[in-house]
Amino acid sequence: MSRPHTHDHCWHEMRNRQSSIIAIAVILGLVFLTAQGWAARIKDIASVEGVRENQLIGYGLVVGLDRTGDSVVGGQFTAQAIISMLNRMGINLKVNPIQLLTRNTASVMVTAKLPPFARPGMRLDVQVSSMANAKSLKGGTLLLTPLKAPNQEVYAVAQGPISTAGFQAGESGTSVVKNHQAGGIIPGGAIVEKAVELNIEQWDSFSLALHHADFTTALRMAEVINTHLGQGVAQPISSGQVKVTVPESFRGKIVQLIAAVEGLDVDVDVSAKVVVNERTGTIVMGEHVRLSSMAISHGNLTIKIKTDFNVSQPNPFSSGGQTVVTPEVNTTIDEEPGRVIQVDQSVTLGDLVKALNAVGVTPRDLVAVLTAAQAAGALQAELEMI
């Protein structure tokens, strides 16, 4: 009689125990990730008040076009801009400005976004858009263009070749056009000349502005900040603002404080809302959407109309007679039997979807169902049509 292999038995038992531990660890990890998945970082749902982009705009000229620029009709201000530019360069022309429009120049509006804390010398991307009747800006070069803020101060200057995504070939009737040609971008085409001064190191407090105002989310945000930085540091002012006072330990370290606050996770609360786009049939429902007890009936009515043309003509070699075409219209009506289902009160979103699918509604029909449910007071959510 052979003895059992005690070593192998222990080894298999150890492997099973390790596998169980690994499985438990994976399950706990998934549970943790699921719990964490409901939270969002403060930097993703709010921004520091006062730290924002600034819009810049300027008027410029694009040259070097292959006869796709502004024409005489609609491009009078382009000719005036050319004359003004040449006068500033010391070139005085005594010609009719309209004669300067050779379709190689186009008037454009140049826009850019000045990011917060931008310093002189930084480069910005600019968007160039035609103002008059230029067909294409492909191959053109933007001349030096000052970019101003609403206070009429110049914060950047733009210049460079324009990049247009796409092409245009052929003439009318046999032309091929891909993408929009009357606009383009200049990557890194603007240079910052002046900075917007924002001395945050002297701040005693700052405010967090929520992207979507909500009292519950604002209160939770203040509680999370106070838990990590001390009681009384954060105070909710309104549904869209949370005020944070700089603690003594972060005096002169406002950057470290903002970075620490932005990395905190907050459970975001949203109101029950149903967003409907009737044009595309798109419907998005939040998790808090609920229904009161009600009954839903839905049936489709389909009408099909088919027209056949019967041709009657005289026999061969017959004298007289003519060919007659008579239409024959066949109309068929298909009406599905109406089905009535009962929806219980306080159902979840999943139950609501199952109930509506059981009725057999399409996304477009669902718009009518939801509108009727709200009119009946059974839809416990805000219905927004876009």
**SSE succession:** HEHEEHEEEEEEEEHEEHEEEEEEEEHHEE
- C-alpha termini separation: 83 Å
Side by side, the strands of the main sheet go 3-4-5-10-7-6
Q: What ranges have pLDDT less than 50 throughout 5 or more consecutive residues?
A: 1-37
Largest sheet, strands/sense/barrel: 6 strands, antiparallel, barrel
Provide the β-strand percentage band. 25-35%
What's the helix count? 7
The global form is: flat
**Overall pLDDT confidence:** 79
- Total strands: the figure is 23
Radius of gyration: 35 Å
Helicity level, as a percent range?
Answer: 25-40%
Count of separate structural domains:
3
| SSE class | alpha+beta
Walkthrough of the structure:
With 386 residues, this protein is an alpha+beta fold. The protein folds into 3 domains: 54-167 and 178-192, no CATH class; 200-267, 2-Layer Sandwich (Gyrase A, domain 2); 274-385, no CATH class. Helix content is 25%, strand content 35%. The chain is built from 7 helices and 23 strands. The strands form 8 sheets. A 6-stranded antiparallel beta barrel has the order 3-4-5-10-7-6. Strands 2-11-13-12 form a 4-stranded antiparallel beta sheet. It has a 3-stranded mixed beta sheet with strand order 16-15-23, with helices on one face. Strand 12 and strand 13 form a beta hairpin. The protein is flat. The N and C termini lie far apart (83 Å). 19% of the residues are buried.
